[in-house]
Write a structure and sequence with these properties.
The complex is a heterodimer.
Chain A lengths: L2 E7 L6 H11 L5 H13 L15 H6 L6 E6 L4 E6 L7 H8 L4 E7 L6 H12 L4 E7 L8 H15 L8 E6 L23 H6 L14 E8 L11 E5 L4 E3 L3 E5 L4 E9 L2 E3 L1 E3 L3 E6 L10 E4 L5 E12 L10 E6 L2 E14 L6 E3 L9 E14 L10 E5 L6 E7 L2
Parallel strand pairs in A: 1-3, 1-4, 4-5, 5-6
Antiparallel strand pairs in A: 2-3, 7-8, 7-15, 8-14, 9-13, 10-11, 10-15, 11-12, 11-14, 16-20, 16-22, 17-18, 17-21, 18-19, 18-20, 21-22
Chain B lengths: L1 H4 L6 H5 L5 H17 L3 E4 L4 H14 L8 E5 L5 H14 L3 E5 H6 L17 H12 L3 E3 L16 E4 L27 E4 L7 H11 L10 E8 L2 E4 L13 E7 L10 E3 L5 H9 L18 H7 L4
Parallel strand pairs in B: 1-2, 1-4, 2-3, 4-6
Antiparallel strand pairs in B: 5-6, 7-8, 7-9, 9-10
Helix pairs in contact in B: 3-4, 8-9
Classes of the chains: A alpha+beta, B alpha/beta.
Amino acid sequence: MDILRIATAGSVDDGKSTLIGRLLYETQSITRDKLEALDAASKRKGLDFLDLSLLTDGLIAEREQGITIDVAHIYFSTPRRKYIIADTPGHFEYTRNMVTGASNAKVSLILVDARHGVVEQTFRHFFISAMLRIPKVIVCVNKMDLVGYSQERFQEIKQEFEAIAAQVQFEGQSVAFIPISSLYGVNVTQKSEEISWYTGQSLLETLEAMDDQVKVDSSQAARFPVQYVVRPKTEKYHDYRGYAGRVASGTFSVGDEVIALPTGQRSKIATIERFDQQLEQAHARESVVLTLENDIDVSRGNMLVKAGQEPTQHREFSAHVCWLDYQALAPGKTLLLQHGINDTKAKVLALEELIDVQSLEKSASPGQLKLNEIGSIRLKVAKPVFADAYAENPANGAFILVDEFSHATVGVGFVNA
Amino acid sequence: MSSFGDKSLIPASALENPVFPRELEDEAIYIMREVAAQFERPAILFSGGKDSITLVRLAQKAFYPGKIPFPLLHVDTGHNFPETIEYRDWLVKEVGAELIVRYVQDSINQGKVQEESGKYASRNALQTVTLLDAIEEFKFDACIGGARRDEEKARAKERIFSVRDDFGQWDAKRQRPELFDMLNGRISVGENVRVFPISNWTELDVWNYIKEEGIPLPSIYFSHHRPVFERDGMLWADSEYINKDTDEIPYEATVRFRTVGDMTCTAAVLSEATELDDIIGEILSAEISERGARMDDKRSEAAMEKRKQQGYF
């Protein structure tokens, strides 16, 4: 069975939590005791309907303020597949959570309130979806009940959205629009008579049809970051040396010639193992152990790549960065850079430009990069980094920045082409 | 204990029609290996429940043909089901792991915690103190737990690497963002990390995995006869650890347990399920959620969040 990971985003009060609650409710993913608790909590709040947002707003502060603070993970499944939703808040100050929640998603679900249309947040959400290269975006025009299920209003919003989305949309990114009412369950899992003019699929039908989004792209260059060296040193496995890791991208087969980075030493794959099974091939996202035909120097943090597909060796490079920390980033700052599982010290040589996510205006050489800001920076690293351009191979093109003293994750970067 | 071994035959139906998403195993094994590589003294928090049994299996697979490179830590409340302890001792021998046990009773004797009184007295809250003491004693820098985000809404906000301060406390607003699959386990002196490799699994995923892997389980997960009594519309195992009211009269019933915690806080369900397929069938048609049978969560709407702030998983 496969998994489809979805990121949801919306502004305050556009009914995102209600939509997710509705999806859970209509796919029978919530049990009776949770429904009863919901009913009681809704009544305590003086509501005469089930407040499905109470299902996802898990923290005390969230329930008090009626908002979503942190990324919440929600699970439901259909006979066809398992779905994981990263529900991210829409507040301006929590944009970092949105980048976080969206980083593993193959589908981005953006909510628009039919009364208010495209607002500042809507574009920010789409911009992030494009920056993270999420291939599929679904725009749910919600609260259609409050605009009389008007087709005109829906078309107006669709056109407005398409016009601004075209500025940042990448080739191969598709955008679908669905008119819904999550409060009344219109077009969430089932189509409904209220919107007879809408001939497309409901939200769930749209998700169920996304077979390409769950498939692994095997055409990418083969990358295998070595996480851990397995050396049992038992009598039976006296000379055994296995390289444990998760294939980042591409496919490895027994007999493939590989190059170990950074040493550049060559060998061939002798075996591919998964627990006590021997495999012929390992595909992207699979956790396996590789053994090589001869003893070469490979340790944690190194990367095995297929000969002929070597990535660029970076000592100095530019990347787009989303800054995630309250303390702003200034040029000259030294940080730890973690690329996959490999880390190195890095120095910020320059802040090249700051991008205004709203106007798309770029200002050169900003003095600093503040929380939630996105810009391009120039980095110098202490050890070479073997990264691909994010646009070409996202699985080997992203990194995080870690503060040397607080150890907090303070930034996320995408290597420029 | 061959009684556990008997169940390890993989049913043919599981192999013909696998429903467990293998991607979840790939992710969990990746996390296990990151723990071994990033920390000096990790441990698996082992309760004898199906989730921590799953963790042991994942650790076994992550480092094969090597052994699991860290110990299992069991915080023994003294109120465990005897079947759980029997299983625990069998399992550590089977996989060749090291087992460390620390006792809530010792924390009580040392005067660090006080036994609760009354009808709902439980040692569930007390175990946090014993756990934090064990972390300090062994200088564990990472504790691997079997919590899942689908269990409870405060847990839905939890990270895979969850940094805790000196007092083991969880601060929901200070959590590190986790981007892609990059895990940042760097900590300062005194801090430690709780790691949740099966964060993205649901209860059904765990059961399907157990079935497809042929993992043996403690017998109390399967239908059996035992004396029970009714309280708050639920069935409780009759034991010396529970203070019964005079009108709470035990009788014999055919039951099983859906989660395994202490005898004082885990309710039984009437069940004839003797095979994993029966259990999976029951879960698919169940009207009550898994933690709906856990008294420790019912204390208030925010019971879990409050316990997490104090250092509970």
